[in-house]
Amino acid sequence: MTEPAESAELARIDPDETISLLQEMVQIPSPYFEEHELSEFVYDWLDSRDLDPEYHHVSEPKITEYEGDNVLARLEGSDPDAPTLLLNAHMDTVLLVEDWEEDPCSGRIEDGKLYGQGACDMKGGLAAVMVAFEALAESDVDLAGDIVLSAVVDEEGPYGLGTDRLIRDGYTDDYDAAIVTEPGPILAQEEDIDNPALLLGARGRFLYDIEVKGHAAHGSQPHKGTNAVVDAGKVADALSNLDVGSHPKLGDGSVCPLLLEGGSQTLSVPERAQLMVDRHVVLGETEEIVREQAEEAVAALDIESEVEIGFRESPDPGIKYGPYVTPEDHDLVTSLVGATESVAGVEPEFGYFASVGDFNYLGDRADLPTVIVGPDGENIHGAGEFVYTDEVVETARIVAEGAMRFVGSE
C-alpha cells in the first residue's frame, strides 16, 4: 500500500491543466470511425512529455472497412512479479447530434460544467487517465508493477474495434486488472448513487437479427397472403415479454425491440420483414440460452410466416459483450476505495453499469477484474452534453493514487 505522504504528493494534479486538456480534446470532433485527429493529438501530448507513446493499428476490412489507431503508453515497474494495470479510455464519440443550439464541440465552461459532444462520454475520463498517467510518470515513487495507458478508437461504434483489437492482438494477456473511466453513476443500474463511485460490473448484450418470411399477395386481398410485417410485430411483442434473468448485483435483464423493417410496394402484402431486438443479459444467460428462449417464444405463436432467429453479424465470432462482476474484496477495488477515501475524504459507493462497453470486453473476454470510475454529467449522447469539471479532476487523482496502490511501490 502507498504511504500517505506519497499519496498527498500524487494528488497534486493541476485542475487548470487537466480541464484545459479536456477542453482541447472536446474541441476536436471525433465521432466513431473519425478519430484520426484526436489520435494524433493524444500521441503528441504523450510524446511531448517523453512518455513514449506508440500507435496500435486497428483494421476491420470485412464489414466496416475501418482503419484507425489506438494510442498506447507504458510505465515499467521494477518488479516483474508485481501486477500490471491497464488504464483504458475511448477517444471516439457518438455521431454529432444536430439539435445542439451551439457548436457541439465548443468546450464551453460555465458553472462548473464543460459542454460538448463526448465531454462526459468520455473525454472527461480520457483527460483524467492521461493526467493521472503523467502524474505517475513524474512521481518520485518507484512503481513495482507496470501501468499501461490505452486510448482506444471505436467504442461508440457497432463493434468496439479498438479494445477488441487489443485483446485479439494479445496485448491484454499480461495485464492483471483494468480501470475504465467511463461516466459512472449516470449510467448505473442504481439511480440513487453519486460520485465518488466504483462500478464493479455490467450486464452483457446480444442483438437478435431476425428474418420473417411471409407470402406476397395483392393488398386488396390480404387473406391470400401472409403478412411478414404483421407477424414480425407479433414476434417483437413475444420477445418483449420473455422471462429474463436476474442477478443480485447486476439487476434484471431486459428486452427492447429496436427496428422493424418490411414492405415497400403499394398494394402488396409484405413478403419479408427484418426485426432487430436488443437483449441485455446477466450472468448465466449465454448465447445458447438467449437463442433457445427466442425460438421457444416464436414456436408458441400462431403465425404462418417462417422465422429465422440469428444474431447481428460481427467481424469475429469472439466479439461478444458478456456480463461480468468484479469482487468487492479484489485488490484493485480495495486500492481504489483507499484512494477515494484519501482524495475525496469519503468511502465510494458501489454500483453496476446498466449497459455495455469496452469494460465488458475487458471484464469478460479478457477475464480482467475491471472497475469503472469516471466523472459524471448529463445529456450523454445528446445535445447539451456536459461533464462536471471538478469530477474530472477528482477522477484523475483517484485513478493515479489507486493505480499506485494497486501496482505497489519500492
UniProtKB/TrEMBL annotation:
Its cofactor is Zn(2+). InterPro entries: ArgE/DapE_CS, Bact_exopeptidase_dim_dom, Peptidase_M20, Peptidase_M20_dimer, Peptidase_M20A. Pfam families: M20_dimer, Peptidase_M20. Gene3D superfamilies: 3.30.70.360, Zn peptidases. Residues 201-302 form the Peptidase M20 dimerisation domain. The keyword Hydrolase applies. Keywords: Hydrolase, Metal-binding, Zinc. GO terms for molecular function: hydrolase activity; metal ion binding. Belongs to the peptidase M20A family. This is ArgE/DapE-related deacylase.
